[in-house]
Amino acid sequence: MLEVCIDSLESAINAIHGGADELEVCSSLPEGGLTPSPGLVKEILKMRPKVNIMIRCRSGSDFCYTTEEMDTMLSDIEYYKTLNINRFVFGALKVTLQVDEENCQKVITAANPIPVTFHRAFDLCINPSFALDRISKLGFTRLLTSGQQMSAGDPKAINLLQKLLSKNEGKIEIMPGAGVNADNAKDFINIGCKIVHSSCKQSKKINIGNNLSMGTSSTQYIYYTDEKIVRRTKEVLFETVGEYKKGT
Q: Distance (Å, rounded) from C-alpha 35 to C-alpha 37?
């Protein structure tokens, strides 16, 4: 399967038309993805895809949250449970770069019975095998990881993914993400992954039309999910599964 991460209605529509199995709905993907607006989610739900909601109240790669920040995110979960969503996406760490089990348990409990993915905060953990064990025991049902590298396609990342899959024994779904595309999607299926994560993005230039801008120059590039890239990635996944079944 293919989960596509999106942060706009245009990207959601393109991902759905391209054949995405699930959407991870965020805001501010250039910042790693934050909790999306209710309006965006409600519009996407009208198209009846599987919708996974990012729960992350601010940017920053520390993933260490104050009590007030946790209260904010728990309130977001409480609200989104009133909608017909399929999954939450969350991760929290201690300053020691270990899983923050206390705050993660709060989220698992608040989200119940909706399943939760532990996101790429995992890629900062100092002991990935131990972190995977804790994440699984806490009740997360899926892990998004780049294999602790910039790209999940890096040979070192592939090696770690294989180790995690072997250690995990199917207890939790391992979903590679970061740098996943049609050119390397096959590699992840071949090592035993059942789902991959990608933005399937393309960039386009927008011209504001005068010298005013919102924080950058008057010419900007924005990223959006490209329907053709989604479709091609799905085709590769189908072809790979077909080859695997034929080989067995």
A: 7
Contacts of 95 (CB under 8 A, 6+ apart): 62, 64
Instruction: Work out the end-to-end distance of the chain between its first and last CA atoms, rounded to an integer number of angstroms.
Output: 20
Tell which residue, 16, 231, 5, 241, has the closest CA to residue 117: 5
Ramachandran sector of residue 178 (left: φ over 0; alpha: ψ -120 to 50; beta: rest): left
> How many Cβ atoms are within 10 Å of 38's Cβ, its own excluded?
13
Single-letter code of the amino acid located at 13:
I
**Location of structure tokens 């709905």:** 25
- Which pLDDT score, from 0 to 100, does residue 176 have? 98
- What pLDDT, on the 0 to 100 scale, is given for residue 96? 96
HEC letters along 170-236: CCCEEEEECCCCCCCHHHHHHCCCCCEEECCEEEEEEECCCCCCCCCCCEEEEEEECHHHHHHHHHH
Low-confidence ranges of the chain (pLDDT < 70): 207-219, 242-248
Q: What is the pLDDT of residue 22?
A: 98
Chain CA centroid to CA 202, Å = 18
Would you state the structure tokens that stand for residue 100, as one six-digit string? 């923050």
Angstrom distance (rounded) from CA 188 to CA 180 = 9
pLDDT of residue 247: 60
pLDDT of residue 211: 60
